[in-house]
Write a structure and sequence with these properties.
alpha/beta; 6 strands
Length: about 210
């Protein structure tokens, strides 16, 4: 697994598929492991991330680390990446064509990590799965999309700008921990017999 992630990071570091690579220090491929089964998807690298080549290393990263600790995890046990892997100029929002160009890397990370859940942080990550949805309406409500369990959350930066959201993020992390614990405790599914229908609920609420 670590070899696959290292090789993928090297490919992302060499990517020139969109103009974002120009004028940046380096790409920010993502970091962590598949140990917990959680893949966090943020928006874009900022100035600190561009300098260090690591995601979520500024104030937002400190809050993310705090929330992880509260549910008994740290960033070495999860995988963290962003919708785009190079810093947009002046920290502007990523553009649709830039997000589209980076989609291949997200798909490759999904393939390599096979996560139990993708946690979307903020509206741009949310938009990859629920275009046009409001994060204030569906945060903390996991859904399965094309076979991938998705757990929407506010971006930590939103709580830094609006401290009242910190309670929502904390509650969502606690819900995430309960969801994962429930999945671990559930009996292993038995494959249906030949000819027996297989039911797959897409876009429905997970775990009840």
């Amino acid at each position: 697994m670590s070899d696959a992630l290292t090789a993928l990071a090297a490919e992302i570091n060499a990517c020139t598929a969109c103009p974002l690579h120009r004028g940046t220090t380096q790409a920010v491929p993502g970091e962590g492991s598949a140990e917990s089964g959680i893949l966090f998807l943020g928006e874009a690298p900022g100035a600190n991330e561009d300098l260090q080549g690591r995601p979520f290393v500024g104030a937002s990263g400190n809050l993310l680390d705090e929330m992880l600790r509260e549910i008994g995890l740290d960033r070495t046990k999860v995988f963290i990446t962003n919708v785009v892997r190079h810093r947009p100029p002046a920290n502007r929002d990523p553009l649709p064509d830039e997000i589209a160009a980076c989609d291949v890397w997200f798909r490759r990370h999904l393939e390599a990590l096979q996560p139990k859940v993708v946690v979307t942080l903020g509206r741009y990550a949310l938009g990859k799965f629920f275009p046009g949805e409001s994060i204030s309406r569906i945060h903390g409500k996991p859904r399965r999309v094309n076979g991938v369990p998705v757990f929407p959350m506010y971006h930590p930066a939103a709580a830094l700008r609006q401290p009242s959201l910190r309670a929502d993020i904390r509650a969502d992390f606690q819900s995430l921990a309960r969801m994962l614990a429930s999945a671990e405790a559930a009996p292993r599914a038995v494959a249906p017999a030949a000819g027996e229908p297989r039911h797959v609920a897409e876009q429905g609420t997970l775990f009840g």
